[in-house]
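Researcher: I'd like a structural prediction for the single chain below. Treat it as a standalone chain; there are no partners to consider.
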Amino acid sequence: MASLPRSEPHLVAVLIDSPDAPLRSAARELLTLARSLGDVVAVALAEPTAEVVAEVASHGVKRLVVAESGASEHLTPVAAEALSAAVREVDASIVLLATSFENREIAALTARELAAALMVDSLPEIEVESGRVLASRQVFAGTWRTRSESLTERVVVTVRANSVTDEQAEPTAVEVTRLVVQPSKRAISATLVRRHVHETVSTERPPLAGASFVVAGGRGTQGDFTPIDDLADALSAAVGATRDAVDEGWVGHDAQIGQ
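Model: Treating it as a single chain, here is the predicted structure.
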């Protein structure tokens, strides 16, 4: 039987998924959204830079939990266990992540770990009514809108990028708490053989998940993405690709669109 939602105010944990780089727009949007839901705690799975801590402070967040789990933190089961440990440490009832391929998996594993409700690809219209969390999402190519209601004490939500206006708050002093998490044998049972990071042609090109404009190519390119790259750079757009182009190995999986 599902647990009843909490009656006390919600504490919101926001995952900062790139703590070693300037704070992404999606993370800043989540911090803005989280303030409307309750008190906010930022969570990083690796040591954040001073710049990231300063940006977290500029969004009115008073606490940052660094949950480190060693060299295997890039494995999604390990990341989920670290995030879950941080959520338990602060006793957060709402967990927010930016929507991405990797974060969807982390969110699902975290929800399983915490016995929490899971809501993916949510719109920013997240509300708390009578202790329960309600969230909306668009389905069937945006022709339908669904509304979900949590029935558990905790809920894990991934939120679509470019859906919230980033707004800073009164700067605060951030208390940084460090938490060492020992991954379970199950979490590290997968072995990473190799990892290749696809470099973008232009450093000015925005990431696909947060881009306002995308130039996409498919099988018709016959593997030559030079015109796609050139047009994307001219428009300050991101580069996307169809499943066929990805399956052919012409571009990396992180460029796939249409999901």
